[in-house]
Amino acid sequence: MKIGIIAGVIILTAALIICLIPLKEVAYAVTVDYEDTETYYETEPLGYRELDSFSGATEDWLKQRAALYGYELPDKLVLLPDWSLYVVIQNLDDSAGTFQVRYTLTTADKEAAERQMWLHERTPEEYEELDRKYYEGSIGLHLEPSEIGVAICPPEGVYIASDRVPFDHSHEIIPDAKEVEKQRTVIKQRQETCYRKVTLLDYLLHY
Known about the structure:
Blueprint: H1 2-20, E1 24-45, E2 48-55, H2 59-69, E3 83-91, E4 97-109, H3 110-115, H4 124-130, E5 133-143, E6 148-158, E7 164-175, E8 177-198, H5 200-206
Antiparallel strand pairs: 1-8, 2-3, 3-6, 4-5, 4-7
């Protein structure tokens, strides 16, 4: 009788060990984050600098101005007899490109401009008296890397009659754009296989 009880206890203990203690190794999948390098492209304007801008000039005056501001004028530059805006640009980029110069030149009635010479602010009536006329356009200046060029706006100049004078000028430079390759770090996910031990009972029921 005692031997039977002891044997039963041993069998029950062995069964519990087999069923409840992790003995079997099984694989399972998990999702993990990881860093990766991604290549992408952006459009950026070409780098440049405006070295100078002026309207109307003599050749000697222009050479003195270039020396003062520390740049060299292109050999092919020809000054116009009529009124023009000159914009000096240097391409600072490693790519060649075209730089658009949008400009506006304004002339005014000579007598009215002389009367208003010392005014800092003008009324609408005084502006009307100036009888302003506008000359607008855009000039494309193609420059190689490091090249200096001069946009003449407009290329043919503006003829000013004896009863009018130059009044104002403005401009805006719009550089070409280029596609630049860049890299950035991104977080991605992947599946990995891991292993764990399960009980024999769990293995038989679920695997």
